[in-house]
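Notes from hallway chat w/ T.B., transcribed later so I don't forget. T.B. wanted the structure written out for a chain they're using in a teaching module, and asked if we could keep both sequence and structure tokens in one place. Agreed to drop them here.
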Amino acid sequence: MAVLGPIIKAALHIHEFVTHVDDHKKAQQKVLRYLLEEARDTAFGKKYDFSSMLREDDLHAAYDRGVPFHDYNQMNDQWWCRVKDGEKNVTWPGIPKYLARSSGTTGKKSKMIPVTDDMIAAIKNAGTRQVSALTNFNLDATVFEKEALALGSSTGLDDYKNFKVGEISGIAAGEIPEFLDSKYRPGKEISQIDDWDERLDCIVRESGKWDIAMISGIPSWLELMLKKVMQYHNVDSIHDVWPALSVYTSGGVAFEPYRKSFESLFTQPVQIVDTYLASEGFIACQQRPETSAMQLITDGGIYFEFVPFDPDHIMEDGSLKQGIPALDISQVKEGVDYVLLISTVSGAWRYLIGDTIAFTNVDRAEIKITGRTKFFLNVVGSQLSVIKMENALQQLQEKNGATIKEFTVYAAQINGDFYHKWFVETEDEVSEEQLASDLDEILKGANKNYMVARGKALKGIKVTKVPNGFFNKWNKHQKKMGGQVKMAKVLSDDKQQAWEDFVKRELNP
């Protein structure tokens, strides 16, 4: 009879009860005050006079007036470059030992973001909060005594000046407490392998020795791993290898387009839990089974602000125009797209993380990611967000009985007319013309801005089907392989020609 599982589950349930946040507004006020107090003697805190702000009655209003918005380039060029040169007390007390290399889908270069000891502690606490919240789900107690597999980035970090550099998932995995080491897979030795294919091969070979109950990672890469494990063991279900598998923690991209193909790999129920871990910090995680929305970590090392999304407020490079009032969590409304700003214990200040979110439940601080500031397709006023695209594709799949897991889209001029060019990963028999026609009608019905644009300069949609695995092949071509790499949903201008050449070469060899 299993005894350890119920004990662990009970302890986690107590932890969840003790650390649960009831008043998110008060928690956020406390975080802002802490950030300003800790950083007031840094170069950044002195420049913007945090000491004076702390004497104001309305701390958020003073902060909103006193500190400009920053994107990565502004923080890096004005401040973090000094941190990387070894200067102490620039945007946060002391000097960090890690830099997180962003695995994001925007920008020509990888970003390198400071990760302080305070941020490592905040990520650990948020991770514990996430695991504790699993006690709210209907999971057998034995799940909590088995092993967890995290398909993240390599924990083998690079050296840069006096810093260790890697993706945030690799940095966080390298900081796992020793008492959890025996339950963590693939383990430190395999996790340090930098080459993605080599690491994956090692995971597949060792998979039969593990008793995995929880898995985490970006859907496209995790699905590839699960299929390789099944192929290696010559089985029809991943549960033939890991019979205890009960939880999949997703994150980074929408899971829904993958649900059908994932469920074909399972013969037992698997609870899907969403998370929001960015290079800048652990932002949110799903706390309850009644919703797929995620709860902001409002009592950690991050202060959140929200700017109502308006394409007129966004610069061409995706940054925000200055002077637009930002809201705190006490001022937001449900169902409104907001540009997300964060201030953190890693010394990011009013930092444009690049995502847009909407609240599904303000009292619970629950959100969904709705898109990227750079990834709103707004040519000729169509104002398509990523979530609207994903919802439209979900309807398209249901209408045609098709499975579309990945896509990318951008606007292009063809013979002087604008079209939205969609590339969808599917091997179903439905024609490209049918997909284009149906998708056009779905978007017209769901988005008035798109319908208006279609009556003016936007002539329509063109769809190109690509085979399964095509986007992974593109990422490999771009030398971007691994558990945290995501495909851009809206392809930037500088990538479009390379993509067109790649598609032409691969589809018409």
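Follow-up for T.B.: The longest strand covers residues 351-361. Might be a good example for the class.
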